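// run 5 | inverse folding | seed 20
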Protein backbone atom coordinates (compact mmCIF):
# COMPACT_ATOMS: atom_id res chain seq x y z
CA UNK A 1 0.00 0.00 0.00
CA UNK A 2 2.87 2.37 0.74
CA UNK A 3 4.32 1.76 -2.71
CA UNK A 4 1.10 3.09 -4.22
CA UNK A 5 1.25 6.13 -1.95
CA UNK A 6 4.86 6.86 -2.89
CA UNK A 7 4.08 6.41 -6.59
CA UNK A 8 1.12 8.78 -6.33
CA UNK A 9 3.24 11.42 -4.64
CA UNK A 10 5.84 11.02 -7.38
CA UNK A 11 3.20 11.56 -10.05
CA UNK A 12 1.82 14.65 -8.32
CA UNK A 13 5.33 16.09 -7.88
CA UNK A 14 5.92 15.66 -11.61
CA UNK A 15 2.54 17.29 -12.31
CA UNK A 16 3.40 20.17 -9.99
CA UNK A 17 6.78 20.62 -11.67
CA UNK A 18 5.07 21.29 -15.00
CA UNK A 19 2.93 24.11 -13.62
CA UNK A 20 3.92 27.58 -14.86
CA UNK A 21 3.72 29.27 -11.45
CA UNK A 22 4.84 28.34 -7.94
CA UNK A 23 1.34 28.93 -6.61
CA UNK A 24 -0.12 26.55 -9.17
CA UNK A 25 2.51 23.96 -8.34
CA UNK A 26 1.79 24.12 -4.61
CA UNK A 27 -1.96 23.95 -5.18
CA UNK A 28 -1.58 21.05 -7.61
CA UNK A 29 0.59 19.11 -5.19
CA UNK A 30 -1.71 19.86 -2.26
CA UNK A 31 -5.08 19.23 -3.88
CA UNK A 32 -4.08 16.35 -6.20
CA UNK A 33 -1.49 14.77 -3.97
CA UNK A 34 -1.53 15.41 -0.26
CA UNK A 35 -5.26 15.70 0.52
CA UNK A 36 -6.45 12.68 -1.51
CA UNK A 37 -3.54 10.58 -0.28
CA UNK A 38 -4.18 11.49 3.34
CA UNK A 39 -7.85 10.57 2.94
CA UNK A 40 -6.96 7.29 1.25
CA UNK A 41 -4.43 6.28 3.90
CA UNK A 42 -6.81 7.23 6.70
CA UNK A 43 -9.66 5.18 5.18
CA UNK A 44 -7.40 2.26 4.35
CA UNK A 45 -6.02 2.23 7.91
CA UNK A 46 -9.43 2.20 9.60
CA UNK A 47 -9.70 -1.62 9.90
CA UNK A 48 -6.26 -1.81 11.51
CA UNK A 49 -7.15 0.95 13.98
CA UNK A 50 -10.33 -0.92 14.93
CA UNK A 51 -8.42 -4.17 15.48
CA UNK A 52 -5.85 -2.37 17.62
CA UNK A 53 -8.56 -0.70 19.68
CA UNK A 54 -10.35 -4.01 20.29
CA UNK A 55 -7.09 -5.70 21.23
CA UNK A 56 -6.22 -2.91 23.69
CA UNK A 57 -9.64 -3.03 25.32
CA UNK A 58 -9.50 -6.83 25.63
CA UNK A 59 -6.05 -6.71 27.24
CA UNK A 60 -6.86 -3.93 29.68
CA UNK A 61 -6.48 -4.71 33.34
CA UNK A 62 -9.54 -4.57 35.58
CA UNK A 63 -10.41 -1.27 37.14
CA UNK A 64 -8.20 -0.64 40.20
CA UNK A 65 -10.49 2.03 41.62
CA UNK A 66 -12.40 -0.53 43.66
CA UNK A 67 -11.52 0.17 47.30
CA UNK A 68 -13.13 -2.85 48.95
CA UNK A 69 -9.95 -4.39 50.34
CA UNK A 70 -10.35 -7.10 52.92
CA UNK A 71 -7.15 -6.03 54.67
CA UNK A 72 -6.99 -3.05 56.98
CA UNK A 73 -4.16 -0.56 56.90
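// decoded
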Amino acid sequence: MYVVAIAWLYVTIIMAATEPTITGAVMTFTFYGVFPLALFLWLAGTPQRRRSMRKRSANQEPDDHNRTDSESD
